[in-house]
Amino acid sequence: xxxxxxxxxxxxxxxxxxxxxxxxxxxxxxxxxxxxxxxxxxxxxxxxxxxxxxxxxxxxxxxxxxxxxxxxxxxxxxxxxxxxxxxxxxxxxxxxxxxxxxxxxxxxxxxxxxxxxxxxxxxxxxxxxxxxxxxxxxxxxxxxxxxxxxxxxxxxxxxxxxxxxxxxxxxxxxxxxxxxxxxxxxxxxxxxxxxxxxxxxxxxxxxxxxxxxxxxxxxxxxxxxxxxxxxxxxxxxxxxxxxxxxxxxxxxxxxxxxxxxxxxxxxxxxxxxxxxxxxxxxxxxxxxxxxxxxxxxxxxxxxxxxxxxxxxxxxxxxx
Length: 319
Description:
transmembrane, 11 helices, alpha+beta, ABC3_permease_C, elongated, FtsX_actino, transmembrane helix
C-alpha cells in the first residue's frame, strides 16, 4: 500500500509541474549527452595519440647536390644560409657519412628501426602522392633528398635524435612528424575542454531547474505533507515522492542522452555521414566504447537529480 501511495504521488507531482519537468528532462538530456560525448572525445584523442605516435617517424634528410649549390650561393652572397641549407656547404652527403649516420642510429638504444630511402624512392613516393599537381611535373629525381626514417621505441624521446644529428655535415634537416601531430591533438584537447565547459554549464542549469521544480512541488503540496506529518509519517517517507520525481525526470533525461550518443555513433560515425569510411586515417572508436559509457550516463542521471532534490527538501520542506 505504501509503495502504491508513493508511486501515485510521483505521478501527481510530475503532472502538476509538467512544463518544469519537461525543462528538467531536456536540460539533463543535453548535459549528460555532452558528458558522455566528452568522455568519448577524451578516449578518442587518447586512442588517436597511441595510433599516430606509433606511426610517427623521425626523418633525417640528407644533403644533395642542389642543396650544396644553394648553400654555396648563399655563402657567396653574404647570407650565411638558414636552416638545413647552411649545413650543406661542404657538398652533398658522402657514402661514408651515410654509413656513419646509419651505424650511429642503429647503436642508439631508443631506436626501434632505421629505414633508408633513396632519392629515386623518394621521387616515386612523391609522384604517387602529388603527381596530379602542377608542381610535380617540374620535380626531377636529382632534386629529391635521400633520408633515414627512424622509428623510436618511445616516440616521446624524439628530441634525443634531433639534438644528436641536427646541424651535422651532410644532414639537411631532422624532421619529427610528432610535432605536427601534437598541434592537431592540442586543438582536439581544446575542443574537448570547450565541450566540458558547456557540459558544466548545462549541469548547473539542470540542477537549478531540479531544485526549483522540487520547491514548487513541495509548496503546491504543503497541505498534504502537513497532514502526513500530523498522522505520524516520518520525514523520509514524506520526502521520498519528491526525490523519486526528480529521479524519474533525471532517468528519462539520461535515456534521451543515451539515445543521442547511440544515434551519433550510428548516423555520424558508422552510417549516414559515415566518417569511418570517409576519414580512414582516424581510428574511430567502436560500439564497445560507446556502450561502456551508457551506464555512467544513467547512473549520473539518477544520482544527480536525487541528491539535488534531497538537498532542496532539507531546506525548503518543513517536516
